[in-house]
Write a structure and sequence with these properties.
transmembrane, transmembrane helix, mainly alpha, membrane, elongated
Length: about 50
C-alpha cells in the first residue's frame, strides 16, 4: 500500500515538474506550448491506468 501511494506521488511530481519545465521553455519558444500539451496528454494517458 505504501509503495503504491509513493508511486502515485512520484507520478504527480513528474507531471508537475514536466509542466513547469514546459512553461519555462514556452517563455523562450512559443512552439513548445503546442508540443508540450501533446506530450502531456500522452503522458497522462500512459499514467491513466496507474491511477
Amino acid at each position: 500500500m505504501d509503495w503504491e501511494k509513493h508511486y502515485n506521488n512520484w507520478n504527480y511530481l513528474f507531471i508537475v515538474c514536466f509542466f513547469y519545465y514546459c512553461v519555462l521553455l514556452s517563455t523562450m519558444n512559443r512552439k513548445c506550448i503546442r508540443n508540450s500539451t501533446v506530450k502531456l496528454k500522452f503522458i497522462i494517458q500512459l499514467l491513466g491506468p496507474c491511477n
